[in-house]
Amino acid sequence: MKRKIAITCALNGVLTNPKTHPVPVTPEQMAQQAREVFEAGATVVHCHFRAQGVDQGHLASWDPKVAKDIVDAIRAEVPEMIINCTTGVIGADIHGPLAVLEASRPEMAALNAGSLNYLKVKEDGRWAWPPMLFDNPVEKVSGYLKKMKELQIIPEFECFDTGILRSVKMYRKAGLYDHPPLISLVMGVASGMPANPDWLPLLKNEMDEDAHWQVIAIGRENVWPLLQRAIQLGGDVRTGLEDTFYLPTGEKAKSNGPLIEALAKMVIREGHSIAESAETKNKFGIR
Predict the structure, then answer these.
(1) Mean pLDDT, the chain, as a whole number?
(2) What is the model's pTM?
């Protein structure tokens, strides 16, 4: 059956260095990239905010003014674009992300739905970075959900592992939220779910029947086959320089636009059409 597929672009990510990779950082760059991907077929942009001015680079910023300036610039350039803000922080203090949500008022916000040992090992057996716990206990998840409900922001439950995915259903049963969930299956992180298309039917069975879901395919291996399988199974899809640098040809993308163009062509080849902004808002319950 032909469906309307919503496409999200993750513009820049959390630590990707703009000095070595073509990620947008300034309000002007973020707005320009939002325009580029909107014209290519994306109706949602997932945004991380970076330090500006002399400190501009790869480090995150939770300055509400930085976030508002970037969101305002995107909205001025592409009024139809749906904005999804990050909230991911390590530790119990979520005042920074909550202040960003209050200031920028995005339509959506990512909500990391459970904890993960965030690990990667190099070929020589050394850690790629010091082993870290990306901690998202129930108290933290509940705090985000409370603020998002207050601000009428749609939570996007990011699930890095199968137990995290199954927890989303329990949060609903426990009364933490009361609407059809929007679930993102984050696949390809070394210590999380692999970027394996064969996992998708099983993962889909672990969701509530009324859930909306998308795949976030991380890295280089199996990214495009995984996105293709998601489309075939009725999911929405996300790509962008936060998720991968590589086009289906193996060529490195010079900006977000070519990645979204490739994904939009895949949607069409699979016999579906690309959701427009109003259709995406209706699908996700955005007022």
Answers:
(1) 96
(2) 0.97
